Each structure stands twice: as structure tokens, then as C-alpha cells.
Amino acid sequence: MCGQIIRFEHTQTGKNLHSHEIASPLSRKNEVSGYGDDGEGDEGDNWIVTCNDAYWERDGKIKFKHVATGSYLHVTGDTFGRPIHGQSEICAYPNPNDFNYWTTAEGVYIKPTDDTRESRDSDDGHDEL
After folding, report:
1. Rounded distance, CA 26 to CA 77, Å?
2. How many Cα atoms within 13 Å fall on the side-chain side of residue 28?
3. Residue of 5, 66, 119, 129 with fewest CB within 10 Å of its CB?
4. What is the arrangement of strands in the sheet containing 88-93, beginning at the earlier edge strand?
5. Least confident of 32-36, 38-42, 117-121
């Protein structure tokens, strides 16, 4: 759901998509990295799904706002020379703009359980996945 707090876990390493107030190497905005083990981490792993409709839908343009810093997951346009030549830097940028938009290309869909549906109706309005 839009407005829901989520965590992204890398399927091969088990690390969470994480950000904090440390400067990224190229753009000097907030660094984005992998953190934690097997889904366990801290508040720096929480992102808000930001979209215009009630739900995040396939091919829909969305943004991810970092809960702790208020910054948006962002492609800077700066590229690394190594370890992967030409790889774009991903950071957390303080302001929303066109480089904060993301669309689904591939991934793993996690079907909500009954517990998830029940917590969706809870008072706090979000769950962690």
C-alpha cells in the first residue's frame, strides 16, 4: 500500500537496503548501503512507499522515502570507475524530484499473509516486511 513502511532485503546477501546521515562517495548525499543479516537490522532500513494511488502497482512510478532521514532513494547520475565500471551511484537525496522515481522491472513478490492484512487495518497504518 502507498504510505506503508517497508524494508528491502537483497535475496543473495540477506542485507537490507539501508541509509543514514553519512555522505555517499560521489554525490556527498546520504549513503545507501546493505546492512543487517537475514532481514534483521535497524531503523535505518525503513522506507515509506510514496505513490499517488492506494497501492503500488506494476509499472507505476513510485518513490521511496527514508523514514529516519526524510530523504528519497535516488539515482545521482554519477558513475563509479570500480568495482563495477559505469555503475550509477544510488543515494538518499533530501528533496523529491524526477530522479527519485522507480518502476518495477523484476523482483520477488511476497503475497501478504492474513497477519499482514490484519495489521494493515491496525491503528498505526503500516507494517514492516
Report:
1. 10
2. 0
3. 129
4. 5-6, 47-50, 63-66, 72-79, 88-93, 30-35, 16-23
5. 117-121
